[in-house]
Amino acid sequence: MKYTCSIAMCPLDQLISLAKTAEDVGFDSIALPDSLFFMEKAAADYPYTPDGSRMWDENTPWVDPLIAAAAMGAVTSTLRFYTSVLKLGSRNPLLLARQVGSVANLTNNRFGFGVGIGWAPEEFTWCGAPYQRRGARVDEMIEVIKLVLGGGMVEFHGEFFDFDRLQMSPAPSQPVPFYIGGHTEAALRRAARVGDGWASAMMTAAQLAETIGKLRTLRAEYGRADQPFEVQAVCVDKFGVDGHRELADIGVTDNIVVPWILDGLGFDAPLDEKQDSLKRFADTYIHAG
């Protein structure tokens, strides 16, 4: 099983040093969350907490995940980066294709594109994107971005996006993996149909096991059961060496963790304490076998 460190809600001046330390102690990847802005009044509940509340406020630090991946990639050589997950629905697919291709090239193919639809109506409306039919629109966006990243002169004529022949150069020298987030039936079908993996939000091991089973069934339905597939999980109730082994047994391939939170520290803990947490976690789990 791989180990990924999430840098959610970390002060921006810590990110470069955390990436260096994570690579030095043996982490496989950095997970980069996405938040466009904090709206004072939200029209919808946050879907991944029991009461719908957001776990951050207007002063919580966020960094653009694509810019962060490029910056951290410049000071590392083996560490991978992936968005977990970028809210696709409020953005433009051609602009994103340019950005994703740039990050993939600048990191020497150490970037994975984790995508979701987005949960907040304000992010769509205030960014000029329709909230209605957002799922179908995101499906087409994924198709557009993959097409452009594949290289060469391409064109697209869909329901939501339409353009004549164009080319973005250089294309990444390897395909950028797409990881699909979301817990709904539609999201799981999207992951099984077009994804190179699936990314969870916070879930129990029992919920993960049930979802992974559904994904296996759906991937077989789409004729993709034999293709490589990552399961990136944030588990809230399995800890310790035995707990991590249980996660591997149910099919988790990538365990997303925040070592300083596991150590009882806050998101805004000092850098040196977070680095100590990374080292302690790596010694206990990554190098345990």
UniProtKB/TrEMBL annotation:
SUPFAM superfamilies: Bacterial luciferase-like (SSF51679). Gene3D superfamilies: Luciferase-like domain (3.20.20.30). GO terms for biological process: alkanesulfonate catabolic process. It holds the Pfam family Bac_luciferase. One of its GO terms (molecular function) is alkanesulfonate monooxygenase activity. This is LLM class F420-dependent oxidoreductase. The lineage of its organism: Bacteria, Bacillati, Actinomycetota, Actinomycetes, Mycobacteriales.
